From TrEMBL:
Keywords: Signal
Organism: Flavobacterium limi
Name of the protein in question: 2-dehydro-3-deoxyphosphooctonate aldolase
Signal peptide start-end: 1-21
């Protein structure tokens, strides 16, 4: 009986935090499907001109790819394609999960953003990016970053 009460309480908490209207501004279900490079990173061809893209929870980087069962894999595929502003090697750490929103691509009916901190040599202050594995959008390099050079 205690287990049932705990499960019901968790479900109520999880669903009560989620608004019925999404605040995400850059979801695009018509965006082209993501493609993998030979290095198992996402192929990114566009650079964002929006300062909010990836840096603001309402404008996360949408990296939906086939399914959401292995969120870390898709996040790594995106992050490993990036470099610092002058091609520096970046390191990244997942800080937290935040910002629930409604989505049809989750069994719970809700999705969450994963927050990553990125660092590179010579950087004054680490940057924080918001990644969304549940929705589609045009995949771009956030302002202030570049693409990692491919090994031939």
């Amino acid at each position: 009986m205690k287990k049932i009460i705990v499960i019901i309480t968790l479900l109520i908490c999880a669903t009560s935090c989620v608004s019925t209207k999404s605040t995400l501004k850059n979801v695009d279900d018509n965006a082209p499907d993501l493609v993998l490079s030979k290095n198992n990173t996402f192929v990114i061809k566009e650079f964002s001109k929006d300062k909010k893209y990836g840096y603001n929870p309402d404008y996360p980087i949408n990296i939906f790819f086939r399914n959401t069962k292995d969120e870390t894999l898709n996040e790594v595929r995106f992050l490993n394609a990036l470099a610092g502003p002058n091609g520096e090697k970046i390191t990244y750490t997942r800080l937290e999960t935040c910002c629930p929103f409604p989505t049809k691509r989750s069994d719970m009916g809700a999705g969450f953003l994963n927050v990553y901190e990125l660092k590179w040599e010579g950087q004054k202050k680490p940057i924080t990016l918001y990644l969304n594995i549940y929705e589609k959008g045009i995949l771009m390099v956030p302002m202030g970053l570049s693409l990692k050079k491919e090994n031939n």
